[in-house]
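WARN no homologs supplied; continuing
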Amino acid sequence: MIRFYAPDIDTTGLLPEGESEHAVRVLRRRPGDEVEAVDGKGTLFRCRLLDDNHRGAAVEIVERIAMQKVWKPYITVAVAPTKHADRMEWLVEKLVEIGIDRFVPLRCERSERKELKRERIEKIAVSAMKQSLKAVLPRIDDTVTLKNFLAEYAASPAQKFVGYCDADTPRRLLAKAYAPGSDVTLLIGPEGDFSPAEIEACLNAGFTPVTMGDNRLRTETAALVGTDTIHIVNQVFS
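OK structure emitted
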């Protein structure tokens, strides 16, 4: 069954306008039909349509089902956006499907793209959440400078890793460095990589330099492989 995103359904008893339009005009759902909605906070609602108002369809909530995330740690992925925005949109879609808790776009010295449209990224995250049958929507941040991001995370108790391409910098394999079950922050730089000064700042903030393997990866690929590695380590060793 197709799921709808209705963050306020428990208080309003309505599907939002965009979701109502899709349910009523595209899928041709009618009063009495059953629909499912998630609130993005961990609850699935089994509902019955009460009307076919495409601007805000009323529903009767038949059942509330708790659907918390299936992974234990809090996973933050911070990435410097690529020059082509569609690659970041693809990345967010895949990250949400795999499972993350927070996505942070970073502005670095060598960033070719300074901003991401948060509203667009959130829509992609919502779509991926519904498609992958999740009920928790990751937090999507506005673009932040690396300096401000490091200031926030310097005191974080989570494990902190930075992916870096310079083979002259001692790095650990992420699959071996990550302790299963631990909250984790993964930091991936721009297409031109972090500057030496930025890497020094990351190390001073407690980030451990890591590699995803022997292959050199694109920004979005490194973020995806790193996130999946964290999940695999947790599945195998937790």
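DSSP finds eight helices and twelve strands in the chain.
OK
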